[in-house]
Amino acid sequence: VEALKKNPNWKKRKGPVVLVIMDGVGYGKYKEGDAVADSKMNHLDAITAKSPHTKLKAHGKAVGLPSDDDMGNSEVGHNAMGCGRVFNQGAALVSKSIETGAMFQGQAWKEIVENAKKSGGAVHFIGLFSDGNVHSHLDHLKAMIKQAKKEGVKKVRIHTLFDGRDVGETSALEYIDPFEAFLKEQSDGSFDARIASGGGRMWITMDRYGADWSMVERGWAVHVHGEGRQFKNAREAVETYRKEIPGIIDQDLKEFVVAENGPTGTPAPIGAIEDGDSVVYFNFRGDRSLEITAAFEEEKFDKFDRGRRPKVCYAGMMEYDGDAHVPKRYLVSPPSIDKTMGEYLAASGVRTLAISETQKYGHVTYFFNGNRTGKFDEKLEDFVEIKSDVVPFEQRPWMKCADIADQVMEAIPSGKYDFIRLNFPNGDMVGHTGVYQAVVCSMEAMDLQIGRIAKVVEGAGGVLVITADHGNSDDMYEHDKKTGAVSLKPDGTPKAKTSHSLNPVPCIIYDPAGGNEYPHKAGEGDLNEGLGISSIAATCIQLLGFIPPVDYDRSVLKM
Ligand code: 3PG
Ligand code: CO
């Protein structure tokens, strides 16, 4: 891309533009369960009161999802903020590709099917087992199973990663039962489709950003080797673990292997992955797909001992990394997100710092840059990762927000950066645990850090843009869809909601020094209304003294 045009009237600020992304922090629709409103956030409240602010849409079509019933998520949210426009995202592209038949005419699918037919082996499907539409959708899986049968595949094995994070926290059986019925319907003398292994998505396989490779190792053991505790079927596994570990939610369920009829009378796994088999990892979202893909694809691999590594034909649902071109084979092309803000800023000589802790590090780098892991310009960009704790986050709800703030507070007055973007994971990572008190604690911890950062921005003559990628902590209880009443557990306490919300998110422009990009007044109504989070890109570009690209979505600043 070309350098951005300078705004000739721009009055340069002394300090940098600091973009704070409060992951999973929206404006709640219901009073009950809105842990954001319920927290003491004196700093954020004070900043909001004295700054122009508005609400931005962060779900559904505003972030490229199929419909406005789809909650936002970090991938599409950071894509939108970083790319300044809305692209049709994975969920929509995969559905379309199945609908038009393009997926099944593609080379990758043909190879998957041909390989299994030639070897007489199985086609394995591994992925997130829900209709959350954040990483995957069961309809995609079902369509592929039907098509495999139609094309003469004889054996299919499914490796289910229970969700409870993008869907109801204990909903696994609601997915298993109808799916087993579907498999039964499909199976006949010449087609044999079964669930073979699985476990909770936060316990096996779906780690991200190298936070905890032991998850992938446990997944590899059950999916590939069929090594793990044995059960008759998935339902039995779920019921057993729920009984043994009271209060356990689906995302944390332990691993299982379905076994029966072993040669020596002892049960044998029904779906270990063998030489000659085909494997489809059916998640379309990349962050939690890259590690298991590396285990299947990489010749040299040192994250854990893979033991026997079957020779398989492997495909991912999408290309997960557009820089490194991973995986080698994929079923659907990802959105071609081009001309990102990061690329423009690098072309314009803007010095940038992107920082978060492990759990969201890739969000402010990889997702923000349109699903590319690399930098646009080594000299202009610094990416900083602070190691996340490897603990259930309800035990440490403050996470690393203070450490992130420390580094940002050093960077702001250093004169080294024009643009600093950071992500505070608290609202999202703790929100996903469903533990209300921990969420309140996480919000208050984050607020302290926002107060510290705001003070340094003031001193340095910078400007602070505070926003979020989607809601989560603002909606911590399940509500009846029709009446809106809080859903209760048998013991009368509210049923926790662990997934994201459909709520709008804040956009606050705290500009103590005052620029001349927009009328500098306090209160609501000073900013353009009714926009989505894709407007954050043009907003930051304006605050940095440039004119946004013409095809970018409108900034919130009234010029
Ligand atoms: C996850 O991957 O943790 C959830 O499915 C979505 O959360 P995120 O979009 O906030 O990362
Ligand atoms: Co989340």
UniProtKB/TrEMBL annotation:
Reactions that this protein is recorded to catalyse: (2R)-2-phosphoglycerate = (2R)-3-phosphoglycerate
Metalloenzyme domain ranges (all copies): 16-546
Sequence positions that bind Mn(2+) 1: D428, H432, H500
Positions of the catalytic residues: S74 (phosphoserine intermediate)
Domain of life: Bacteria
GO CC annotation terms, alphabetical: cytoplasm
CDD domains reported for this sequence: iPGM
Cofactor(s) the protein requires to work: Mn(2+)
Keywords: Glycolysis, Isomerase, Manganese, Metal-binding
Pathway(s) annotated for this protein in UniProt: Carbohydrate degradation; glycolysis; pyruvate from D-glyceraldehyde 3-phosphate: step 3/5
Any single GO BP term: glycolytic process
A Gene Ontology molecular function term of the record: phosphoglycerate mutase activity
EC number: 5.4.2.12
Gene3D superfamilies associated with the record: Alkaline Phosphatase, subunit A, BPG-independent phosphoglycerate mutase, domain B
Binding locations of substrate: H135, R165, D166, R201, R208, R285, G286, D287, R288, K360
Stated role: Catalyzes the interconversion of 2-phosphoglycerate and 3-phosphoglycerate.
UniProt protein name: 2,3-bisphosphoglycerate-independent phosphoglycerate mutase
